[in-house]
Write a structure and sequence with these properties.
heterodimer, A: 452 residues, alpha/beta, D-Maltodextrin-Binding Protein, domain 2, 2 domains, six-stranded mixed beta sheet, four-stranded mixed beta sheet, 19 helices, globular, B: 275 residues, mainly alpha, MetI-like fold, 0% strand
């Protein structure tokens, strides 16, 4: 008796586990069997949380709009993990037909040779006017005159400020395209007039912002025009544009109106918390964060373009986010289906709804006229600004992203340099160190990949 | 008893120290549980001690996300991994202790070598192997590589070695064969080690993140830790309340396993004492 008692608990557990295993297999089989008459387009994406729900809306809309294809969205984890999965499973039965890959993996994707350029489909399709899609966003994912991937969830860094606080202390808000000194003025005034209760500003330790400061000043990070006219062989982070950017931050740190939230995902969450709780008045963040800042926020939100150096015009910032790519290991019919899906996702009304749901920018020019966005702008006037910033910039090599492999590590090294400066280190020394490390990594990568 | 001899101030000091340590360790945990009852805006603002509590988050987590499916997946995978590890590790440990064969020590040395290499370092070849076997995006890819573990064998071998030689002699006289001796004598005698390994392997499988993230592609085979990651956005709005509530839900099974393990652990100790 005693022995059987001991066996019962594990036995129940094992039987339960096996039952669930069998049961769930039946469920999976059923769900795949029901959509057999349509061509399946497996779509890998990295959007979790609320944006996954918004993405499902887009997919459902496409599936209902026609009866030839069935897009099956599958979440793949973080951007970084997904890249590895895409590259490693290419050519196997599990690989996706269309996938989402983030901005800084563009060079890697093009070099992999695993994708069919979207341009090949656009050329054969008269019904799609690619000129409607934001040129700055498109230029990020094109190479050799061809559209390689299609920009999808796209954001730009913008500057957010607490308009209610500025009003309370009688401070003139910054202009829509501010210079560094415009922001310094507002930050200092806010800090002084609030009796040091509110910090003026923060800039997260984030390599993306460093790169955007370069783009906006019309400077390049890598040679060969940031990789747009050939594979980069040399990086030059220690240039006047980055020095000015860091000197601007240094100045604010010295006057005490700057607060440092550090780097990484938690820094982003913490600075948002600080901003919402009136602890800091100005911060720079992706335009996609707007949802978090408007939902239930009792303060009025102000937004400006990414700041630029004094005495020159803003060149415009590059985009961030991710693009949709078509794998070339699938039959023609499946690839065509993937293209049809991408085309659908960029329709004006789909993009408008997408911007409203997620905060990512609508890329189709015609979206701005839609009722969805007009209503949104009426509710939150500042929400118009990120779209304007995107529309005003003219694409050139500086603001079309850096087409270079190893960008993940490059960003980390940029962040180390930023962190050093924030903690009082010498600007030139920090940038030189970053240059040395980035170049060492770049040379190794180029050698390993057999590029000249 | 020794404690009664301690002077009062000494005891107070001990308790103050213990309470302080307990606070440091438990505070983040309780704050986590507390915030799981708060609305998103309070959490996003960092207003963690608001009293705006409700069960909505939990209802939403269960109804709006496939968290139940993920829990079931994790449960199945962890249970099967645990049972398999207990069986295979105890059998191999038995072989290393009670069977005498040529090259036993060299073979055991090889076993230990595999322990020196962290799993993360083997991910690339392992991924290629499971891809070649066509096991990707399936329960099997989450179970088969973990059917046995060098650590489990090592741990049970150390424990089995302490089984009194007299028991082996006695069972030889009784005419028990190897399997009977293993099942009726060695396993019950080493119950505590078995339970420890069971809890260890269950929690190990439950907390896996990287491997399942790389080898599974759909919600049907997703495990709970990856499901938690799925609730977080890359750049956009984060629904913190949902993330907090789900994190709290995920912790519960681990606590249950630990309590069960502890219960058996205690009873095992008592049995020894009565003898």
């Amino acid at each position: 008796m005693k022995n059987t008692k001991k066996v019962i608990l594990p036995l129940v557990l094992v039987i339960g586990a096996i039952l669930v295993a069998v049961f769930s297999n039946i469920l999976t089989n059923q769900s795949t069997a029901s959509s057999n008459h349509k061509t399946q387009i497996v779509f890998w994406h990295e959007l979790g949380g609320p944006s996954e729900d918004a993405l499902k809306k887009v997919v459902d809309g496409f599936n209902k709009s026609q009866d030839k294809y069935q897009v099956v969205p599958k979440y793949q984890g973080t951007y970084d993990e997904a890249i590895q999965k895409i590259l490693q499973t290419h050519g196997s039965s599990t690989s996706p037909a269309v996938f989402q890959a983030f901005d800084i993996s563009t060079a890697q994707m093009i070099h992999s040779g695993f994708t069919t350029p979207i341009q090949d489909f656009i050329d054969k399709d008269d019904s799609f006017d690619v000129n409607k899609i934001s040129p700055v966003a498109r230029s990020f994912y094109s190479n050799g005159g061809k559209q390689q991937g299609m920009p999808f969830n796209t954001s730009q860094p913008v500057l957010y400020y607490n308009a209610t606080l500025l009003k309370k202390y009688g401070i003139t808000p910054p202009p829509v395209s501010p210079t560094y000194s415009d922001i310094t003025r507002v930050a200092k005034e806010l800090y002084e007039k609030s009796d040091h209760k509110v910090k003026g500003m923060t800039v997260q330790v984030y390599g993306w912002f460093m790169e955007q400061a370069l783009a906006n000043s019309g400077a390049s990070l890598a040679n060969n025009n940031d990789g747009h006219t050939g594979n980069p062989t040399e990086v030059n982070l220690n240039n006047p544009a980055s020095v000015k950017f860091l000197e601007w931050i240094r100045e604010n740190i010295k006057s005490g109106d700057f607060i440092d939230y550090g780097s990484g995902a938690s820094a982003g969450a913490n600075q948002t918390a600080g901003f919402l709780a009136d602890k800091v008045g100005i911060f720079i963040q992706s335009s996609a964060s707007i949802g978090q800042l408007t939902a239930n926020n009792k303060n009025e939100l102000g937004i400006t373009y990414f700041p630029h150096p004094d005495g020159q015009k803003a060149n415009g910032v590059a985009i961030g986010g991710a693009a949709l790519w078509i794998s070339n290991d699938k039959p023609k019919e499946v690839q065509q289906g993937a293209y049809e899906f991408i085309k659908y996702a960029l329709k004006p009304e789909v993009q408008a709804q997408w911007q409203k749901d997620t905060g990512y920018l609508a890329l189709n020019k015609d979206s701005q006229k839609s009722k969805v966005l007009q209503d949104l702008y009426k509710q939150t006037p500042a929400a118009k600004v990120p779209g304007q910033q995107l529309a005003t910039a003219k694409p050139n090599y500086y603001n079309s992203g850096i087409l270079m492999e190893g960008m993940q590590l490059t960003r980390q090294l940029e962040e180390i340099a930023m962190e050093t400066v924030y903690n009082g280190g010498d600007i030139n020394k920090a940038l030189d160190k970053a240059d040395k490390d980035i170049n060492a990594n770049l040379h190794t990568l180029n050698k390993a990949n057999g590029y000249k | 008893m020794a404690e009664n001899n301690k002077s009062l101030p000494k005891r107070i000091l001990t308790y103050v120290l213990l309470i302080a340590l307990a606070l440091v360790i438990l505070a983040p945990f309780f704050i986590g549980i507390w915030t799981s009852f708060l609305p998103t805006m309070n959490i996003a603002k960092g207003d963690l001690f608001s009293t705006n509590l409700s069960f909505d988050n939990y209802v939403a987590a269960f109804t709006k996300t496939p968290i139940l499916r993920y829990l079931a997946n994790s449960f199945v995978i962890s249970t099967l991994t645990m049972v398999a590890q207990l069986l295979f590790c105890s059998m191999s440990a038995y072989a290393f202790v009670f069977l005498k064969f040529k090259g036993r020590n060299i073979l055991f040395g090889l076993f230990l070598v595999t322990m020196m290499l962290p799993f993360e370092a083997q991910i690339i070849p392992n991924f290629q192997t499971v891809k070649f076997l066509g096991m990707l995006d399936n329960y099997s890819v989450l179970i088969v590589p973990f059917l046995t573990s060098a650590f489990g064998t090592f741990m049970l071998r150390q424990s089995f070695k302490q089984t009194p030689a007299e028991l082996k002699e006695a069972s030889d006289i009784e005419g028990l064969n190897h399997f009977q001796f293993y099942w009726n004598v060695v396993l019950p005698y080493n119950k505590i080690s078995m339970i420890t390994l069971g809890a260890y392997s269950f929690l190990g499988a439950w907390n896996q993140y990287l491997w399942p993230m790389l080898t599974t592609f759909s919600n049907n085979s997703r495990v709970i830790q990856n499901g938690l990651r799925q609730l977080q956005s890359e750049e956009t709005f984060n629904d913190w309340r949902m993330i907090q509530a789900s994190a709290a839900i995920i912790v519960i099974p681990t606590i249950i396993v630990l309590f069960i393990g502890q219960h058996y652990f205690k009873s095992g100790l008592n049995e020894g004492a009565v003898k």
